[in-house]
Design brief:
Layout lengths: L5 E8 L3 E3 L12 H11 L2 E7 H11 L8 E5 L11 E3 L3 H10 L4 E5 L3 H8 L5 E7 L7 E2 L10 E9 L3 E8 L1
Parallel strand pairs: 1-6, 1-7, 3-4, 3-6, 4-5
Antiparallel strand pairs: 2-8, 7-10, 9-10
């Protein structure tokens, strides 16, 4: 699909979880090379897409709009409002994002797990997946992927070891 690029992913355990059952992130290994990779990624991003739960966690930790300089869309059928410059989207997420991709702008980052990522991957709107794979098995938690209803083929575009035994892996959805 032409237009802006949507990338989904983040730090993930070897067994495929973004966070523990309680949302814990105490297992994450932060390093200089991981920070450099993140800095390079964020250079082209001007828009963030998040679901209700991800937004609530980020807002609680950041004390307001989690991503100050970027347009942030929060997708929820239950929230009545969001604060600090974020925009609430209660309409159909697939239709909204399909339109958003055609508007002028930079890259788009899809954050968090759950229904939003599942629906956008299923609709073929996600272009890339970027994972910082950590050498830990959490056993349970918030999964990075949920069933999109069909196979999703990907092509590896980058794979390298970074500090802490982590693997940075980037894929293009084909």
């Amino acid at each position: 699909m032409p237009g802006r690029t949507i990338t989904y992913g983040g730090a993930v355990s070897l067994d495929g979880f973004l966070a523990g059952m309680d949302g814990s992130l105490d297992w994450l290994h932060f390093s200089r090379d991981a920070q450099e990779a993140m800095r390079d990624f964020w250079k082209g991003v001007d828009t963030i897409l998040v679901g209700r739960k991800t937004y609530a966690v980020a807002a609680a930790e950041g004390g307001g709009k989690p991503w100050n300089s970027m347009r942030t869309y929060v997708f929820s059928r239950t929230l009545q409002q969001v604060g600090d410059g974020a925009e609430l989207v209660a309409a159909d997420a697939v239709a909204f994002v399909r339109d958003l991709k055609q508007r002028p702008g930079g890259a788009i980052c899809l954050m968090g797990g759950g229904e939003l990522a599942q629906s956008l991957i299923a609709a073929g709107l996600v272009d890339r997946v970027g994972l910082n794979i950590h050498p830990i098995l959490l056993g349970a938690g918030i999964p990075v992927f949920r069933d999109p209803g069909h196979r999703v083929k990907m092509k590896l575009t980058e794979c390298r070891e970074i500090d802490g035994g982590c693997i940075l892996a980037n894929y293009a959805i084909v």
